[in-house]
Amino acid sequence: MQLNEGRWQLAGHDVEALAEQHGTPLYLYDEQTIRRQVKRFRNAFGAFDHRIHYAMKANSNRDVLLLMKNLGLGIDAVSIYEIRHALEVGFDAHQILFTPNGVPFDELEQAIELGARLNIENLTYLEQLGEAYRGDVPCTLRIHPGLVMPPSSRDATGWYQRSRFGIGEDQMAQALRLVELHGIRVEGLHVHSSSMILDEQVFGAAAKVLLDLARKLPNVMAIDLGGGIRPPYRDEDDHPDLDALAHSLTKPLEQFESETGRSLQLWFEPGRYLVAESGTLLTRVNVIKQLGGRTIAAVDTGFHQLLRPKLYDAWHEIKNISNPHGPQQVIDVCGCLCEEDDLAKARSLPEVREGHLLAIRNAGAYGYSMASTYNSRPLPAEMML
Ligand code: LLP
To answer: What is the CATH topology of the domain spanning 2-29+277-384?
Structure first.
């Protein structure tokens, strides 16, 4: 977003004019930013035979999906509804990797029928798959991230151990027994390490664990390192070092290849990294209020349309589009729901008045896709620029 002669512009459009033309609240996605992110990702991992399955849970807008398809990406899907949506947009079923957890087995059966690939994360599904299809349906196995990051290593929060996803260390022997018993062809191994990766060693550590397991499974032709690369949300945030992440993979892969003579594909499932920075939520200030020493701007969106600040205390940059050069003022920005609905607390912004247009930035991932109709409010409009 650029300031040009006192007017904010986004992808060559005047932001105020977009809001006047299309109304608010309005989600805008900048196509060029998505293209840039896909390119950065591809450049970093270009030395490897790799495939990207875009995690459509981050943003399943039709134009975003079409763009990903045209850029040659596949899809990481988590529900039969996402699979149907991706098929309807034009993805080949074979490009869709389905990673269900806790869904009825019936959804897996439908996915198989439609031709999607399966990523199995628990023993129940593995057994059901084996019993129903014997060796006819191949799958990848999702490994618990605690296997990648053992307790105490680089994980102050214990996130890796607490995750409920994937087959755990103590279940691995049983999983391998089921694979053998039913003659299931395991064609890939998967781990999603975290959703906010900044540690450059994570992919390398994950690859080592998956490659060790791949030695016992001769049909494995890909290892899938999941998503989780975090783009910056504020100016002072570190940019993820994709080259370092890629570099950490070189040695384990070379070693595996020279020892086994097998060369494996690398799969990734980025969501946030590809789309977060492309998204802006435009919202209008309805009411300015002074209360208990605070100045509060109530806007025409809220956590029904951007849940991340409420749910994760997430920080999204806000710009006052209508008053770029106004004097700085500390203000709380809250939504229009009948509930505590802070979008930002004690934020320093150019003076905000009623009727002003605000832009909430980096809202392209897990924004609209997590929206609801709480308070019976309709979903916001979305538009690709
Ligand atoms: N693959 C798997 C198996 C996942 O569970 C996820 C995200 C991804 C890929 C994509 O991760 P990403 O690259 O987008 O970080 N609602 C939260 C994020 C939840 C992520 C869940 N899984 C948020 O707004 O921050």
So the answer is: Lyase, Ornithine Decarboxylase; Chain A, domain 1 (2.40.37)
In percent, the amount of the chain with pLDDT more than 90 equals: 88
Residue located nearest, by CA, to atom 6 of ligand 1: 227
pLDDT above 70 coverage of the chain, percent: 96
Q: Tell me if the pTM is above 0.70.
A: yes
328-333 CB contacts, 8 Å cutoff, 24+ apart: 329/295, 330/295, 331/295, 331/296, 331/297, 332/294, 332/295, 332/296, 332/297, 333/296, 333/297, 333/299, 333/358
Please indicate whether residue 338 is annotated as part of the active site: yes
77 ligand 1 Cβ < 6 A: no
Residue type, 218: P
- The CATH classification of domain 32-275, taken from the options 3.40.50.970, 3.30.70.260, 3.20.20.10, 2.20.25.10: 3.20.20.10
The helix/strand/coil state of 197 is: strand
CA pair distance 167, 99, nearest whole angstrom: 13
For the segment 39-91, what is each residue's pLDDT rounded down to a tens digit? 999 999 999 999 999 999 999 999 999 999 999 999 999 999 999 999 999 99
Beta carbon of 270 within 6 Å of any ligand 1 atom: yes
SS3 86: helix
For the chain, what are the domain ranges? 2-29+277-384, 32-275
Mean pLDDT (the chain, rounded): 94
Beta bridge partners of 95: none
Burial of 173 from C-beta contacts in 10 A (0-12 / 13-18 / 19+): exposed
